[in-house]
């Protein structure tokens, strides 16, 4: 994705407008005209910063992931296998979307790779999230010894699937009790997976 000076005031205005539109109406439901109209800027100015609608969309997805990862890193000082830390990690995912609802559906699209004609580019953007997950999973794995046939990649895949699934299960409007029940369930499943089915587990 190519963008000229994304930190300029005009570019920021375009990106904010595009992010809200793509989040609310999706890729197919948003046009260049829509973005120009919402940002109160001309299509000519938009094309000065971005080469195409695809570039605008991919940049918005990249901003979503980068801001999400930055938020998680700023709010988690230490990763461990404690139940408290696991709860904190899961809770923060939902706090981020509560505070940044303009990213919620974009995040879903990143996980699901939509639209499909951009799946390769979206996969590359998603790699930032994958690498972040792997980095903290490695820290957790310093506390346990993996079983004979268990690979580090197995742990990473399981936790990524569990966390990404949880984002689809809950939204900013979820009932508080339902949300807390789901958070507790996600944490319990993660700890069970990492510790095994010991008698004294939880």
TrEMBL record:
* Keyword terms, alphabetized: DNA-binding
The residues that make up the annotated DNA-binding region are 31-50
Residue intervals of the HTH tetR-type domain: 8-68
Instruction: Cite the InterPro entries for this sequence.
Output: DNA-bd_HTH_TetR-type_CS, Homeodomain-like_sf, HTH-type_Tx_Regulator, HTH_TetR
Identify this protein by name. AcrR family transcriptional regulator
Q: Which organism is it from?
A: Fusibacter tunisiensis
């Amino acid at each position: 994705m190519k963008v000229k000076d994304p930190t300029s005031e005009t570019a920021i205005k375009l990106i904010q407008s595009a992010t809200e539109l793509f989040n609310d109406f999706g890729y197919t439901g948003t046009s260049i005209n829509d973005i120009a109209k919402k940002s109160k800027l001309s299509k000519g100015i938009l094309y000065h910063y971005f080469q195409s609608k695809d570039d605008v969309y991919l940049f918005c997805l990249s901003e979503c992931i980068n801001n999400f990862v930055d938020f998680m890193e700023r709010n988690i000082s230490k990763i461990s296998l404690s139940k408290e830390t696991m709860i904190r990690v899961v809770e923060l995912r939902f706090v981020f979307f509560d505070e940044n609802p303009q990213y919620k559906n974009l995040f879903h699209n990143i996980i699901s790779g939509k639209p499909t004609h951009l799946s390769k580019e979206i996969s590359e953007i998603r790699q930032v999230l994958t690498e972040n997950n792997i980095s903290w999973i490695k820290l957790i794995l310093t506390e346990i010894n993996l079983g004979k046939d268990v690979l580090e990649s197995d742990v990473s895949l399981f936790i990524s699937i569990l966390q990404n699934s949880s984002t689809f299960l809950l939204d900013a409007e979820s009932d508080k009790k339902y949300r807390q029940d789901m958070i507790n369930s996600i944490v319990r499943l993660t700890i069970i997976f990492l510790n095994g089915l010991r008698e004294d587990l939880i």
